[in-house]
Amino acid sequence: MAGISFRNVTKRFGKTIALNNASFDIQSGEFFCFFGPPLSGKSTVLKLILGLETPDEGEILIGGKPVNQVSPADRNVAMVFQNLALFPHMTAGQNVRFPLVERKMPEDRIRARVEAVSAKLHIGHLLHKPPAQLSGGERQRVAIARALVRDPVAYLMDDPISALDARLREETRVELKRIQRDLGHTLVYVTHDQEEAMSIADRMAMMEQGEIRQIGAPAEIYDAPVSRYVARLLGAPMMNILPVNPGDGLQAGQGVISLPAGRVPSGVTEIGIRPEDLKVEPWSETHPGRPARVYEVELLGGYTVVTLDTGDEKLKALVRGKPDIRIESAVALSCNPANIQFFNQAGEALAR
Ligand SMILES: Nc1ncnc2c1ncn2[C@@H]1O[C@H](COP(=O)(O)OP(=O)(O)OP(=O)(O)O)[C@@H](O)[C@H]1O
Ligand SMILES: [Mg+2]
Questions:
Q1: Which terminus of the chain is more exposed, N or C, with fewer CB under 10 A?
Q2: Distance (Å, rounded) from C-alpha 83 to C-alpha 164?
Q3: Among 20, 39, 193, 212, which residue has the most ligand 1 atoms within 8 Å of its CB, making it the best to mutate?
Q4: Taking 90 as the threshold, does the pLDDT of residue 73 lie above it?
C-alpha cells in the first residue's frame, strides 16, 4: 500500500475551477474521506488520483513518486465503481472472482487471490453459496471481498453504498471500516453523508466549491471547526447559529443566551452551539436574559429533539431520554461556555 499526496493541485473545466490549489497527504494504510456538498470537487480528486484527469497545476505523488506523467494503468490504483451489492445470480465465490475474470487474469492467479482474500475476511466457507442463502452481514463481507480482491497500491471509492437501504448501509460501513483496518489498505472514500464520513474516516477533508477548507480527524473537526461553513457540515441536527449584535456584546440571539464575560473574543458576530450542548430548563426570573418558547418536541427513542423559537430564529436542542418539556412553554437556554464557538463576519472561527 502507498500514501497519496497533492501539492497545490488545481483542475479547471473551462471557467469552472473544480479543484483549487489543493494540498494534502494521505498516509499509507489510512481511511481518508472527502466530504462536501454536490459539485464541491470530490469526484474530481478521485479522477486526478486515478489519472483519468490531469491537473492544470501542481503535482500528484503516489508512494512518494510524482505520477503526473504516469498513465492510469501504471498507477495501479483501483477505483471501486460498482456499488457494494452482490450479483444475485452468481455464487459468493463467482462474485468475488468477477473483477479478476473481467480483467482476464490467469485462472491460477485468480484462485490464489480469491483464496487469500477469503481467508482474510473469513468467508472461505461461504463461497459456494448464492447470496440469497447468506445473512446480511455475510453478504456484505462477500461484497467487500469482491471490491478488494485486486492488489493495488490504494483503493478509491466514490459514494459506494449510497444506493443501499439505511440498515444495510450501517452494516456495510461497519464491515468496511473493520476490514480496512485489518488489511491495512489505503482507502480514499467519497461520501456526501456526514454521518457516514464521521463514522468511517480516520481523517477527512472538508470541501467547499473546489477548496479544501479543513483536514483532520472527524472528532477534531467536529469540536474545532475552522469556520461556520465547516461547523454546519457536520452534526445532525446542525449546529445552532445565533447572532451577536455589536451593541449587546454579552448576549446572543437577542438575549436568549448569555455569553461568558471576559471570554468573548473581539470581532464576534455569531456564535455556534451544538444541539447536544444547548441546555433547556424551565423558565425562572433569575435566569440572565430572555426566555425562548418551545415550538416542537420530537421523541426519537433514546433522545428527543426540541425545537425552540427565540422570536427571530429556531434553535434545536438534543436532549437525552424523554424530557418533560411542554410545547409553548417558556424555557431558559444556556450552554457551557467551553462548548460555544465564536465566528466573525467572514464566518471564520475565532480563538477563545
Ligand atoms: N468533465 C467535466 N466537464 C466539465 N465540468 C466538470 C467535469 N467534471 C466536473 N466538472 C465540474 O467540476 C465541479 C466539481 O465536480 P465534481 O464532480 O468533482 O463534484 P462532486 O463533489 O463529486 O459532486 P457530487 O457530490 O455531485 O458527485 C463541478 O462544478 C462540476 O460541474
Ligand atoms: Mg461526485
A1: C
A2: 8
A3: 39
A4: no
